[in-house]
Write a structure and sequence with these properties.
The structure holds 2 protein chains of 2 kinds.
Chain A lengths: L8 E2 L7 E6 L12 E5 L6 E4 L13 E6 L2 E6 L8 E9 L4 E4 L3 E3 L1
Parallel strand pairs in A: 1-9
Antiparallel strand pairs in A: 2-6, 3-4, 3-7, 5-6, 7-8, 7-9
Chain B lengths: L2 E5 L2 E3 L5 E8 L8 E6 L5 E7 L6 E3 L7 E6 L4 E6 L8 E8 L8 E4 L3 E5 L2
Parallel strand pairs in B: 2-11
Antiparallel strand pairs in B: 1-3, 3-8, 4-5, 4-9, 5-6, 7-8, 9-10, 9-11
Classes of the chains: A mainly beta, B mainly beta.
């Protein structure tokens, strides 16, 4: 059972916008620990797409954006493309567990 | 370019031990904390362990505490994960990943391709 809660799946048509939620608690996201997001394609290593809740690495297009409010975070992907089909994971740090924590992952179709 | 390469995976019987290695290149590994993250078949990502840049601190997930040990050799740019008393639930693809910060920020900017560990009799 993952510490951070994500929907198992989301879907969208090319050109549309999807949002993936990540719900934590007062010992992780709610304790002001930053959220990162990763894109994981089959057979590849996970790729960092958002860090510090809202920041994109330089090689990530601005179609990807992150936000955080309270104990939750969200990843939005606009102008969906076929290449975006992947698993997406949120990640933070948990003060009570003294551990890095992940969401269960969301499959984007 | 930054590269992390895992090795040492394989098939191991329950109760036995295995050591994974993570070789870093293209960056000064002694300046970065390194994590191990695993993914069991059909499951999500699970953080396993962390070692600080200088090896002074190690942290573990509850699921592996007391069985796994992380260490590093900064003179050779290697990080190791010694796994003992392995069970079927430890079957997974094991990734090493670089912490993005200095000393540490608890997210990962580079990952290796993974080493597969299968625990089965």
């Amino acid at each position: 059972q993952a510490v951070l809660t994500q929907p198992p799946s989301v879907s969208g048509a090319p050109g549309q916008t999807v949002t993936i939620s990540c719900t934590g608690s007062g010992s992780n996201i709610g304790a002001n620990y930053d959220v990162a997001w990763y894109q994981h394609l089959p057979g590849a290593a996970p790729k960092l797409i958002i860090h510090g809740n809202i920041n994109r690495p330089s090689d990530i297009p601005d179609r990807f954006s992150g936000s955080r409010s309270g104990a939750s975070a969200s990843l939005a992907i606009t102008d969906l493309q076929a290449d975006d089909e992947a698993d997406y994971y949120c990640q933070s740090y948990d003060l009570t567990l003294n551990a890095v924590v992940f969401g269960g992952g969301t499959k984007l179709t | 370019q930054v590269q992390l390469v895992e090795s040492g995976g394989g098939l191991v019987r329950p109760g036995r031990s295995l050591r994974l290695s993570c070789a870093g290149s293209g960056f000064d590994m002694k300046n970065y904390a390194i994590h191990w993250v695993r993914q069991a078949p059909g499951k999500g990502l699970e953080w396993v362990a962390l070692i600080w840049y200088d090896g002074s601190r190690q942290y573990y997930a509850d699921s592996v505490k007391g069985r796994f040990s992380i260490s590093r050799d900064n003179s050779r740019n290697f990080v190791y994960l010694q796994m003992s008393r392995l069970g079927p639930d430890d079957t997974a693809l094991y990734y090493c990943a670089r912490d993005a910060g200095s000393p540490i920020v608890y997210y990962f900017d580079y990952w290796g391709q993974g080493a597969l560990v299968t625990v089965s009799s």
